[in-house]
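Thread: quick sanity check before group meeting

JM: Hey all, I'm pulling together slides for Thursday and realized we never actually wrote out the predicted structure for the chain we discussed last week. Dropping the sequence here so it's in one place. If anyone has concerns about the input, flag it before I start.
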Amino acid sequence: MAEAVLRREDGSIVCERCVLADTALTRMKGLLGRRELPNGEGILLKPASSVHMAFMRFPIDAVFLDRDLRVVKIAADLRPWRAAGSRGAKAVLEIPAGEARRRDLSVGDRLVAG
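JM (edit): ok, ran it. Output follows.
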């Protein structure tokens, strides 16, 4: 799987090691089977407008993005056996719980890969 660094337009880093899950199989597997998601790591599910936490072992922040990678919603501290979605979302960035707040991420921020 491809890996990228995701930044805000101002250059501040949102995810140092972000894996791109852009096939049906990689999106379906997502973070399943992992015991944790270390700070700085994440997975970008594309295309996706919702996520489910069935069989997950830890909470995450789910950041919903439109086609321009602009944040349209943040589901913070999404716990196992929950689900979240956002109308208009074309991708979802899954990062460790609390990371969106620590990185001062908010609705309207635009992300760039590089």
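AS: nice. Helices lie at 24-29, 99-102. The longest strand covers residues 13-21.
JM: adding both to the slides.
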